[in-house]
Amino acid sequence: MNIDVPDGKDPIGYVWGEMVPGIGPAAANLSLAVYEHTTLGLREFEAARLRVAQLNGCLFCLDWRTERDGRKVEAEFADAVAEWRTTGAFDERTRLAAEYAERYALDHHALDEEFWERMTAHYDQREIVELTMCVGSWLAFGRLNHVLGLDSRCVLPRSR
């Protein structure tokens, strides 16, 4: 489906800001908050975010790279995320972030005790809650953008 966007309007700004003014701006604020207030390291943050983007198929999200203090992950990082099980490019926290994002997106009922033992060996409870909120945000909003055809019509802002 493609949402009709008036000529001259930014698709994301129009859908998120004007079409549903009681919900869209609040959703946008949550989406921005996961970038502005995260305490997670850049590599684990991007591993989870890119894994959700790969599963959602959101073109905008796949093209995006989070920047912190002038740094972004290396160009090959997205390929490593797709191969999170076997890549040698990740430490255990980064690998777990990608695994958690995938399992959360595809089969959250299968997050078993064995997984949580591994996860809690590398993340504290606050970090797990934060990562979960980030993954939930990306899952919901990346799918919204892709399902409604916004991801192929928006332009990446260059300020990030």
How would you sum up this structure, described in words?
There is one protein chain. With 160 residues, the chain is mainly alpha-helical. It has one domain (11-148): AhpD-like. It is built from eight helices and no strands. Helix 1 packs across helix 2 (24-36), helix 3 runs parallel beside helix 8 (125-147) and helix 6 crosses helix 8. It is globular and about 50 Å long. It starts with 10 loop residues before the first helix and ends in a 13-residue tail after the last helix. InterPro entries: AhpD-like, CMD-like. Residues 27-102 form the Carboxymuconolactone decarboxylase-like domain.
Question: In short, what is this structure?
Answer:
The chain has 160 residues and is mostly helical. The chain is built from 8 helices and no strands. It has a single domain, classed as AhpD-like (Up-down Bundle), CATH 1.20.1290.10.
Secondary structure: elements and pairs:
Elements: H1 11-19, H2 24-36, H3 42-56, H4 59-63, H5 77-82, H6 92-107, H7 113-120, H8 125-147
Helix pairs in contact: 1-2, 2-8, 3-6, 3-8, 6-8
Organism: Actinomadura decatromicini
Domain Carboxymuconolactone decarboxylase-like: 27-102
Protein name: Carboxymuconolactone decarboxylase family protein
What fold name stands as the CATH topology?
AhpD-like
Shape: globular
The percentage helix is 55-70%
Overall tally of domains: 1
Strand content: under 5%
Low-confidence stretches: none
Distance between the termini: 28 Å
> Regarding CATH, which class?
Mainly Alpha
Radius of gyration: 16 Å
Order of helices and strands: HHHHHHHH
Q: What structural class do the secondary elements suggest? A: mainly alpha
Instruction: Assign the CATH architecture.
Output: Up-down Bundle
The overall pLDDT, averaged over residues, is 92
What is the number of beta strands?
0
Main beta sheet, described?
none
CATH homologous superfamily assignment: AhpD-like
| Number of helical segments with 4 or more residues | 8
